[in-house]
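Hey, I'm writing a tutorial for new members on how sequence and structure tokens pair up, and I'd like a real worked example in the thread rather than a made-up one. If someone can provide the structure for the chain below, I'll link this post from the tutorial.
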Amino acid sequence: MNCMVCIPAPEMISRENCEKVHNILARMSEVYRLNIVPEPVKMKQKGYPDFYKKYRIYKDIKERDGNGEAYLLSEEENMILSVCRDEGEIELMKSCTYAYQYPANLVLKAFRDDRKEKKKS
């Protein structure tokens, strides 16, 4: 089954931030009826604390296409941000790395940065 993966930013690792991400995703799971499974982050180069988790979000995801789109869909952005309670939680979730997990590979996705678009206009 295809899923979306959410990995909190390694530079923001603290027990408090990891608990906030967990709680935000738990709210998202309740509101949108999604199965979200936490898993330990394992990397050979660097050991991470036990409380640092990545999350598999089991939901229908867009099939791969050849356009190289590197951004989350607007519905996914809204789904993630709609359960945030304040600006701190929004920034925390925007700092996470997101990816589509396909059977053969992982495709990274990001939030669209509205601030860059506003500066250009």
